[in-house]
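Cross-check.
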Amino acid sequence: MFEKEYDKLIDYIEGMIADGVQLVHAGHLLDWSDTTIPEQIAKIRELKGGFEMPKLNPGDRLKHKVSDQEMCVINVDGKTVFLNPDSPTIKYPLEKILNEFIIVKRANNK
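Predicted model, tokenized:
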């Protein structure tokens, strides 16, 4: 959820750098190279794999980094990956569940 917002922020900052926007600090003009911002963006891109589209094929097996649940790639259409879980039960850490899921409907339990 937040990842998309961070991606937008990085794109926005990179656009500012490409447009030649300068920074002002205490009345002094700074170039972006005078900060660690370009280095931090490069580190983020490196950690994310450079935003390259992954090469996945039907039959590839993936493992979720948080829940450790394994999935099998069924189809890849260029934009979307269709996955089937190996098991019908999904195990997920309670403290992180609402980072990636939203409550659509609550049960009538009291």
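The chain has a mean pLDDT of 81. The two ends are 30 Å apart (CA to CA). Passed to J.P. for a second look.
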